[in-house]
Amino acid sequence: MVKYQASAIDRTFSALADPTRRYVLLRLKDEPGLSVSELARPFSLKLPGMMKHLDVLSDAGLITRTKNGRTVSVSLSAGPMREAMEWLRRYESLWTVSIDRLVALVEEDEEQ
Amino acid sequence: MVKYQASAIDRTFSALADPTRRYVLLRLKDEPGLSVSELARPFSLKLPGMMKHLDVLSDAGLITRTKNGRTVSVSLSAGPMREAMEWLRRYESLWTVSIDRLVALVEEDEEQ
DNA sequence: TTGATACTTCACCATATGGCAAAGTGTTGC
DNA sequence: GCAACACTTTGCCATATGGTGAAGTATCAA
Fold first, then answer.
1. Calpha distance B83→B11 (Å, rounded)
2. How far apart are CA A33 and CA B87, in angstroms?
3. Which residues in A lie closer than 8 A to residue B82 (C-beta atoms)?
4. Nearest residue to nucleotide D14 when comparing alpha carbons to its C1'?
5. Domains in chain B with CATH codes
6. How many Cα atoms are found within 13 Å in the side-chain-facing hemisphere of A47?
7. How far apart are CA A74 and CA B95, in angstroms?
């Protein structure tokens, strides 16, 4: 297979491809700074399993870990998701209506 | 590992995690209907290798294949990418500026 | 200082992934 | 028909992935 060094965006999409990892990202959005064991608790997953997922998320730059005493707080780092969106945006024209319609939508949104 | 049936969005992100597959999607955007061997040609990749990538893309619903005689034309099917973007959009607030700035940008864009 | 807590690392396992060569299938052209 | 073409399938291989239990490390609390 000869795995060349995977690029940043490879690592990002690959990290996002797992439901456990996506759920971790969702939780961190609402509750930043959760610890490793708090993140693992809702899953039928031992700590080493969660560690591996967190390693994948770190390698992709999607989270940062900071040690406070013996607990580690994990927080989100959304930059790579932005790049993933930029990549996807190239295809947006294949499903969206015109830019005029987008402006109208934004304006509707503002009126509320 | 006990691989539960991967969900649609799992398959989408997973399909996007490979540079060969992303390049295939880019080519198909500009040149819809390319054949399997035309897609394989630019890579140092034999046909069976490209077949596997196309299978992954099909399973994710990102391409469709239609047989014309002995050649197969492949075309893009962007729906799943839209869903991937919707997922990512939840995090957009973590990196974007205000909606006012977005409106300004859209308007700037229109003036050109 | 000692024991519990909160990770972290290690060794191991089963399955998935991504590649190949070779053989098989269906079309086309002579 | 039959040869060439365009896939497609099969069998194989090496490595990656996602999980475990067990052992190791660092910190806190008594």
1. 12
2. 22
3. 91-92, 95
4. A1
5. 8-111 (1.10.10.10)
6. 6
7. 18
Sorted by sequence, the CB contacts under 8 Å of residue B13 that are 6+ apart come out as A13, A14, A16, A17, B84
In this prediction the pTM is 0.82
Which strand C nucleotides have any atom less than 7 A from protein CB atoms?
Answer: 5-11, 14-22, 26-28
Task: Write out the two tokens for B96.
Answer: 């974007």
Position B2 confidence tier, pLDDT thresholds 50, 70, 90: very low
Query: Residue B6 has what DSSP assignment?
Result: P
Helix (H) or strand (E) holding A72: strand A71-76
Tell if the CB–CB gap between A95 and B88 is shorter than 8 Å: no
Q: Which of B25, B88, B44 is nearest to A4 (CA)?
A: B44
- Could you list the pLDDT tens digit for every one of the 112 residues in chain A? 444 578 999 999 999 999 999 999 999 999 999 999 999 999 889 999 999 999 999 999 999 999 999 999 999 998 899 999 999 998 877 766 555 555 555 666 555 5
**Which bases of strand D have any atom within 7 Å of the beta carbon of a protein residue?**
5-11, 14-22, 26-28
Q: CA A16 – C1' D16 distance (Å)? A: 16
CA-atom Rg of chain A in angstroms: 18
Map tokens 């290798």 to a residue: B49
- Chain B hits for A104, Cβ within 8 Å: none
Determine the Cα–Cα distance for residues A5 and A104; give it in Å rounded to an integer.
44
- Ramachandran angles phi, psi of B45, nearest 5°: -150, 130
SS3 B41: coil
